[in-house]
Amino acid sequence: MKRIKKKRFWASCFCFMAFFFLLTTFQVVVELGRSKQLTSKNSVSQKNAFREDEFQKYPPLFFKRPKLDHSAGKKLHRGTYPVLLWWSPLTGESGRQAQCGEDVCFFTINRTYQHNPLTKAFLFYGTDFSIHSLPLPRAGYHDWALFHEESPKNNYKLFQPPAITLFNHTATFSRHSHLPLTTQYLESIEALRSLRYTVSLQKKNSLRKRLAPLVYVQSDCDPPSDRDSYVKELMAHIEIDSYGACLHNRDLPDHLRNPSSMDSDSFYKILAQYKFVLAFENSVCGDYITEKLWRPLKLGVVPVYYGAPTIQDWLPSNKSAILVTDFPHPKDLAQYIKGLDADDKEYVAYLEWKLKGDISNRQLLAVIKERTWGVQDIMKDNYIDAFECMVCTRVWENIKRQAKGMPPRRWKAEANHLSCPSPQAFAFSPLSAQRSVLQDVWKSSFEQSKREARALRHLVERNRNFTALEFWTLVFRD
């Protein structure tokens, strides 16, 4: 019997490795195809580069045309502003003139501006950053700026030092970036203090007759954090209601089965009935904190959190969440939660900050107060606008320095502006051994991303266009 199980295990290993090989091969083929499609497009766009006077086609949007001291920028013609070109369809804007304090910049996704002398910076969105088309050659006055607020699994190579340090300006979830987006999923301190959805302990205890103590809602299954593996093991030791596609064992009402309903009052009211929410991120990365944490805190439910190793720096109080990493095994966590479930006084201790509106984390309070952008706040710019204005202001700073005969200031991204450890699988029992094989796919992808980042840096520093074939040849070179 043991021999049969061993054969099955190794057969599973072989299948997953074969899957990873096919996935990598497919990725290479897709990149090569994209490269061929874009070759002709790029050549056409270079021939049709806009003249400077074509800026006048775009009237100012939402802003009065300011009076600027054009003598500050000797290379700027009267009536025109520095161009910041989005190398991504993210904003969808063919031309927009925006004011950032006293400075004005022209933002566009129109790549025909690539070779225009007024183009000072290229803005990239990390999720759709691709090697098959980059604005090369890169002039000495061309800044590269990266906006990336999403999970590292979307583009692992950008999380490696050779790649992230290619950029001059960054806006990422890391507190170390030039524009930190760590609190991007928290609209305000008031939302944390609010008791709008809070269910009384007496009612929660009554609801325990039909509800599990823990709730889990995930439909992105088997991500790099290996959260489903942990929750599956945890289910062997304590009851968990799982509404999502991952480890599903309980159905939501029909009107809440659409993913768009995850931010509805009706869904919030269901979650608020529980005592504990399993808040597991899809990736483990410093300062990568999503609604997984903030949602239960806003609803008056105790989050059982796994994700950012830096999470204690961001919690509203020292006793507002249960950290998975504090327990050697899921059965130990289960035992602890059972104890809290049976002891009202100990359980309420985790909600005391909420009930009193007492947020003791000074760093969290300061970051929310000082950030230049808002979340669902019509009185503030959103974080994309803030990112654009950060780059615009820095571009103008160098224009003014040049006018005074001073050397330009050079900004540079550091490795900690976007950095994550290699994905690791949980290995707490024999039950997880076979599941950990799936994690090899994520781990292999992460390891390959190191080679991709080195290849990318080499080709960009060569400072001329390159093909996908050149890139992949360099990646897989021994």
Automatic annotation (TrEMBL):
Compartments reported by the entry: Endoplasmic reticulum membrane
Reactions catalysed, as given in the entry: L-threonyl-[protein] + GDP-beta-L-fucose = 3-O-(alpha-L-fucosyl)-L-threonyl-[protein] + GDP + H(+); L-seryl-[protein] + GDP-beta-L-fucose = 3-O-(alpha-L-fucosyl)-L-seryl-[protein] + GDP + H(+)
MF terms in GO: alpha-(1->3)-fucosyltransferase activity; peptide-O-fucosyltransferase activity
Gene Ontology BP, a term: positive regulation of protein secretion
Keyword Ribosomal protein assigned: no
Primary localisation category: endoplasmic reticulum
Domain Fucosyltransferase C-terminal: 213-397
Topology relative to the membrane: Single-pass type II membrane protein
Pathway in which this enzyme or protein is active: Protein modification; protein glycosylation
Similarity comment: Belongs to the glycosyltransferase 10 family.
Function: Protein O-fucosyltransferase that specifically catalyzes O-fucosylation of serine or threonine residues in EMI domains of target proteins. Attaches fucose through an O-glycosidic linkage. O-fucosylation of EMI domain-containing proteins may be required for facilitating protein folding and secretion.
Protein name according to UniProt: GDP-fucose protein O-fucosyltransferase
UniProt organism field: Pseudonaja textilis (Eastern brown snake)
